[in-house]
């Protein structure tokens, strides 16, 4: 397998090459870790590999299959669209995908389905509908699910797929990281004001989603330090959080932050998202 666009991740590349060489490429793949764009890049890279028509190493990036894949115009690569603004993959869409996956590919040897950001978009009801097909997938099909953490998917989904975890993308925007640290500090501050002031700086949707991604990473770092592991993003914040939070607190705060992200993708006003996030954090930490 050729990897032109994916930096680092040497272990992952090695496992992918091994699977390809031994002809054991799975029918269902979960891509987690890294950033949203890195996950999509790897998903699209695997899709291109699946439809590449080259007799040599794949994806060649120059055959008809690869070019159609790059133009997002390959009839055998299907991107799940999701419903409305929330882009939720509802049960009708999953049922359509399942039915469609039993139809032979049009031009390539494989058909690919990409379902991105499943922790936000693939509800439990849809995951349950998907289960049986993942267990006994049709021939010549590759299902690719991306998510921030595979742990957010049902265990039964995870056990039927191979998970590829990307290294975290440390090319973070410094301003966003500073704001994320402010929010994390606000979460454990004595007064509610600190968190409210910090979250009010989330004045634009894409920025808010990225900053909250970092807040989740900081919280995960805190949890890691608490159990004696290393922080990935910022050890100083992790140490501070570690002194103030229990394991249960971390999990709750991560859930609350994810909920805020979901509300942002649902077009809830940013001020309302901030106020709601603050109220929920206070409530979670009062119960200590
Ligand atoms: Zn090709």
What this model shows, in words?
It is a single chain. This protein is an alpha/beta fold. It folds into two domains: 10-166, Rossmann fold, CATH 3.40.50; 174-286, Zinc Finger, Delta Prime, domain 3 (Up-down Bundle), CATH 1.20.272. It has 13 helices and five strands. Strands 2-3-4-1-5 form a five-stranded parallel sheet, with helices on one face. Helix 4 links the parallel strand 2 (77-79) and strand 3 (111-115). The protein is elongated. The model has no long low-confidence stretch (mean pLDDT 90). Zinc ion binds next to helix 3.
The domain tally reads 2
CATH topology of the largest domain: the name is Rossmann fold
The major pleated sheet works out as: 5 strands, parallel
Strand order of the largest sheet: 2-3-4-1-5
Bound small molecules, by name, code or SMILES, are: zinc ion
Note the gap between the termini: 50 Å
Portion of residues within helices: 40-55%
Order of helices and strands: HEHHEHEHHEHEHHHHHH
The total count of strands amounts to 5
Q: Regions with pLDDT < 50 over 5+ consecutive residues?
A: none
- Rounded to the nearest angstrom, the radius of gyration is 20 Å
The total of helices stands at 13
Architecture of the largest domain, according to CATH? 3-Layer(aba) Sandwich
Q: Label the structural class.
A: alpha/beta
């Amino acid at each position: 397998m050729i990897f032109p666009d994916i930096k680092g991740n040497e272990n992952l590349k090695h496992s992918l090459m091994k699977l390809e060489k031994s002809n054991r490429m799975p029918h269902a793949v979960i891509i987690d870790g890294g950033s949203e764009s890195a996950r999509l890049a790897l998903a699209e890279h695997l899709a291109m590999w699946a439809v590449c028509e080259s007799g040599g190493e794949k994806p060649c990036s120059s055959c008809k299959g690869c070019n159609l894949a790059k133009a997002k115009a390959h009839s055998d690569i299907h991107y799940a669209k999701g419903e409305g603004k929330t882009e939720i993959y509802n049960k009708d869409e999953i049922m359509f995908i399942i039915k469609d996956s039993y139809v032979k590919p049009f031009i390539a040897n494989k058909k690919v389905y990409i379902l991105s950001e499943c922790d936000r978009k693939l509800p439990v009801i849809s995951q349950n509908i998907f289960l049986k097909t993942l267990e006994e997938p049709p021939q010549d099909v590759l299902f690719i699910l991306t998510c921030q953490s595979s742990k957010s998917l049902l265990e039964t989904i995870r056990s039927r797929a191979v998970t590829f975890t990307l290294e975290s993308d440390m090319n973070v925007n410094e301003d966003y990281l500073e704001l994320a640290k402010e929010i994390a500090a606000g979460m454990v501050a004595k007064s509610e004001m600190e968190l409210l002031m910090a979250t009010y700086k989330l004045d634009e949707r894409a920025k808010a989603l990225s900053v909250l991604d970092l807040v989740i990473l900081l919280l995960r770092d805190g949890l890691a330090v608490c159990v004696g592991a290393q922080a990935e993003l910022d050890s100083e914040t992790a140490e501070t959080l570690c002194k103030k939070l229990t394991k249960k607190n971390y999990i709750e705060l991560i859930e609350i932050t994810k909920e805020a992200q979901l509300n942002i993708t649902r077009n809830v006003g940013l001020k309302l998202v901030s106020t709601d996030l603050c109220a929920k954090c206070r409530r979670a930490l009062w119960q200590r």
